[in-house]
Amino acid sequence: MITIKNLHASVEGKEILKGINLEIKAGEVHAIMGPNGSGKSTLSSVIAGRSDYEVTEGEVLFNGKNLLELAPEDRAREGVFLAFQYPVEIPGVSNINFLKTAINEIREYKGMPNIEAKDFLALVKEKQKLVELDGKLANRSVNEGFSGGEKKRNEIFQMAMLNPVFSILDETDSGLDIDALRIVANGVNKLRSKENAFLVITHYQRLLEYIVPDFVHVLYNGKIVKSGTKELALELEEKGYDDIKKQFELA
Amino acid sequence: MSLALENKTSTSQNLISLLNSTAEKNTIIGFEQIGEALQYIEASGIPTAKNEEYKYCNTDAILRKEFKQIGNKFSTPATLPSFDAAINVYMINGRFHSVAGAEKGIVISSLEEAAGSSANGALVKEHLAVHALPSSDAFTAINTAYCQNGVFIRIERNTAIQLPVFIHHITQAVETAFINPRTLIVAESGSNCTVVDFYHAAEGANYFSTHTSEIVVKENAHLNHLRIQAEKENAFSVHTIEAVQSADSTYDASTFIFGGNLVRNNHLVRLLGKNIESHLNGLIIGTKNRLIDNHTYIDHAMPNCNSNELYKGVAYDKATIVFNGKIMVRRDAQKTNAYQSSKNILMSDDATVNTKPQLEIYADDVKCSHGTSTGKVDEEALFYLKARGIGDTSARKLLLQAFAQELIDKVEIPALQENILNLFEASLN
Ligand SMILES: Nc1ncnc2c1ncn2[C@@H]1O[C@H](COP(=O)(O)OP(=O)(O)OP(=O)(O)O)[C@@H](O)[C@H]1O
Ligand SMILES: [Mg+2]
Fold it and tell me: Are A143 and A89 a contacting pair, CB within 8 Å?
């Protein structure tokens, strides 16, 4: 589904990603762990198309298409979704109006007519239930005044509404209480299918108990330095990153 | 004598001789005031950029370039726009034309008719050209000297008018024109009314308007004043609105600017009694080469009054948006609350925004604040929207709509709110 080859990216002349290689197939869930500042959010931003980052080398293929050539909105329309580590507050833009615009622009891209008002409302109801999002939140401005946990839940709500092919969850678990964590994970699990894939960025192995990954990678200093199965997450939780840091420290 | 001064004199002299030869006789303003106005124009000339009040708005240069000749020939619109559930008033080519609709408790007529009537003659005499002084501004002076038959509105004591009053300003110039429309509104004590000045777009030659409005809001009256300026590139205007308020009254004004070539508003509010509420709001979309200059002046003369100003601007292309907000708090105006905020978004590198708050405070027990900000569209928010599949144009539109919404929400007439929303969307290239 998505193939990342030797991806290098820098911001303000400073190289952050230093040659990432990763292949994610349809139906798979991959987890990325790694110490603060190692480049996890940078990787997700580069995939989503944030313009602050300059890709200096490498490529990202998404179902055969050169993703890096597409505008961020076209990446989303192709089915890429990023649940932001820090969701943005947009005062004055209602969640509902925002989602309706998004759905219709995605549909237009695919040559489909606008969604019927009643179908849209039904979809909102259904997905709200899925992530147990308070109906009042959906009617408020995008993320404005939402608590940290509400923002994260709203990201998953949006994901459920847009039904993407490939979703990146950037620390969606941080800031969630135990119940919310379970709800979010449940939401993700219900959306999992043979046709789509997930990249879950997290610091905590707990999330991976709920969303069981097929592969776990460790990102350190702009590179994937270790990959394994879900046991790797357990091992990291126990031992921390000391060994990895020692092994891969810059000369 | 310097060359600049020579030019300055010649612009006003040229304009006066053109107006003398084309304008009809001013029948509504007393000859003493006309004399005073003419004297002022002669002495002060047409403002150039050297004039502090017209620093970004060189009207002298504009008149010399676009209004060297004035034909003052017009055509009459074939059909007149009208709003449902409203009293529709027509100011065609700068003059009072007609009224459609009526309601008990409100008098609407031409100024000429009001001045000559036994019921309203005294009111006109008491207020017309009394609040907007010819010596306050060159364009008010020109309007005073050459004004055409305008509109008179009187809202009677203790009456709440249900229908909004729409004043449609339509100017169809066949040859370059210079018009001097005039408005006098008297909201008597305890009355309540909404008046909408709607400046329509019209095809035709260039025209310059000096529309001058005097608005008297008596004790405990409530006047809601909406102004929609949606003209085309052929429209040049310096409008002056002078509102004077008595104790316990409310004057609630919102201006929406979506078009016009030169749009200059001098909006002045004088708070002459206790417990007054005044609101001045503005939403400005500047595109192309437009110059949109809002000067506001809120004069707190008495204690316990509140004033609130919110002006928001969006500047595209090579447009220039100016906001100059002066707040005067006089010695007696203790316990004044005066707030002012100007927020602007630059949509292009060639667009300009100039804001200048001016606070002059002579009382000690007051709460005054002002804030101004000018920036670009929030890039973080823009990326967030795009990351959900929303294209650049729609994403910017959503953000600008969010920016404008609180001002559009102030319009309590649903059909007008929708109309303003449509104009707003159409103006975002
Ligand atoms: N826009 C930027 N400008 C400057 N430096 C940046 C920018 N974005 C990221 N960086 C730097 O790049 C490095 C990687 O940041 P990134 O956010 O990708 O880390 P992360 O792995 O997601 O960390 P965390 O676990 O704390 O979320 C950090 O040193 C960060 O300061
Ligand atoms: Mg991060």
Answer: yes
Domain range enclosing B410 = 379-429
Question: Is the CB of A37 inside a 6 Å radius of any atom of ligand 1?
Answer: yes
Query: Ligand 1 pocket check: which of A41, A218, A223, A241 to mutate, most ligand atoms within 8 Å of Cβ?
Result: A41
d(CA B425, CA B429): 8
CATH 3.40.50.300, applies to A2-248? yes
Q: Show which of B272, B288, B308 is a domain's final residue.
A: B272
Q: Is the pLDDT score of B8 beyond 60?
A: no
Task: State the Cα–Cα distance between residues B33 and B19, nearest whole angstrom.
Answer: 17
Query: What is the per-residue pLDDT for B4?
Result: 45
Domain tally, chain B: 2
Assigned domain for B229 exists = yes
Over chain A (251 residues), what is each successive 10-residue block's mean pLDDT? 96 94 96 93 96 94 95 97 96 92 97 96 92 83 92 93 96 88 88 94 89 93 91 84 77 38
Q: How far apart are CA B411 and CA B37, in angstroms?
A: 36
Among B226, B252, B272, the domain boundary falls at B272
- Chain B residues whose beta carbon lies within 8 Å of the beta carbon of residue A101: 390, 394, 398
Sequence ranges of the domains in chain A: 2-248
Q: What is the pLDDT of residues B188-218, one digit of tens each?
A: 999 999 999 999 999 999 999 999 999 999 9
Single-letter amino acid code for the residue at A65? K
